[in-house]
């Protein structure tokens, strides 16, 4: 098998006396959509922040695209940061910038890119996420929640990343908007060959788009596998989650 694009080994995160992760391992394979689930407070967001460098683990090794991010090498981090995009829950857009200007922010890191080309690229990403041409000139406060998420995704895709991190992408959307967003993520991931690290509580999203699921429990990645494999895992939380009424509804069952 190919080397994983994200490889975590022995990760430990701790806040005061609270140990959130202990000896956590995880591999994310190229081109897959990995859904990260777990009970509230099991450290899904902390895990995502650990990979993207917003949280420094007490111990362990983080490798992304073959680069060791725990060695403190700024060159390695710069290479990797140009190859990932991050979408936070509400899109995390700059409120004083238009959608187009928001999408242009990461593009400003590209040396020698003329302003007109930057603008054209931003418009291309805005179209890619299904926003109309008029959306580029709007401010985040003028958008619906679903449109803000799409704008956040456009910004995450600005630099044509290999990996996209999505934190609860469908939270706060109505079921139709959430299903549309699921289709968008799935379509873009397949069309662009993206690797997607997706933190979610949304069972519909897991069933609709994820190739594999990673369950956080007991301070580590307890198990990874396909949804079908999850249904056979003999662990109380995993069993309840994948056999509960919401899971049955997400599968289309009774
Ligand atoms: N900066 C911080 N300082 C102290 N404690 C923190 C910090 N960040 C997270 N925690 C704690 O770490 C634990 C895991 O938090 P995290 O936000 O990753 O959970 P989660 O699995 O994403 O939860 P949810 O599903 O509710 O969003 C929580 O108990 C939280 O209070």
UniProtKB/TrEMBL annotation:
InterPro entries: AAA+_ATPase (IPR003593), ABC_transporter-like_ATP-bd (IPR003439), ABC_transporter-like_CS (IPR017871), P-loop_NTPase (IPR027417). Gene3D superfamilies: P-loop containing nucleotide triphosphate hydrolases. Signal peptide: none annotated. It comes from the Bacteria. GO terms for molecular function: ATP binding; ATP hydrolysis activity. Residues 6-243 form the ABC transporter domain. Keywords: ATP-binding, Nucleotide-binding, Transport. Pfam families: ABC_tran. PANTHER family: PROTEIN TRIGALACTOSYLDIACYLGLYCEROL 3, CHLOROPLASTIC. This is Phospholipid/cholesterol/gamma-HCH transport system ATP-binding protein. The lineage of its organism: Bacteria, Pseudomonadati, Pseudomonadota, Alphaproteobacteria, Rhodobacterales.
